[in-house]
Design goal:
alpha+beta, three-stranded antiparallel sheet, two-stranded antiparallel sheet, binds zinc ion
Length: 187
Amino acid sequence: MKVCQTTGCERKLSGYALRNKVHDSHCSLYCKLSSEQPDATCNPKVSITRTCYVCDETFGLKYPYNHANQRTCSSRCQHKVESMKNGRRNFSLLTIIYELAPAGSSGLTAEDLAIRMQKYPNNIKGISGITQILKPFVRYGMVTATAEPGSRLKVFRWTSSPGIRPGHLGMCFGKYSSTHSSTSLTL
Ligand SMILES: [Zn+2]
Ligand SMILES: [Zn+2]
């Protein structure tokens, strides 16, 4: 049985751990981040300071399983995402890119993303579906799409602009452009 790779955590990567759909070798976002700390160890009593993916509040990410995959500071921010059209789906997809394909990483193809999104209850039509969904985010600059050298494969990565997080997805549809023009990305 595969267990979480982070030292100090022995959670099995099955059953409840399937609630973590982003990180393959770790039981949770908490343990993925713990593995990147200097001691690379899971210290269950220590919380990890994170910035909410929706607003600018910080919160402590905790080890207990019902908290270990938290991306927003509050149910209010979670609700804000879910109240947008396709908000939950888009937030899941953008979170995968934000956490697994940051700027400067090897990136993820539409096929990689389509496979990962199969774990979610959304009905996305494969590679073309992913490319279609990402269009407004690529146009806005939140996600970059570049052709790999020597191939026609497009690779997606998160923007290198700092401070842009998956919960800012509403910006890409121009809804907030008049009141939040200062948050526009510099391209
Ligand atoms: Zn773990
Ligand atoms: Zn928040």
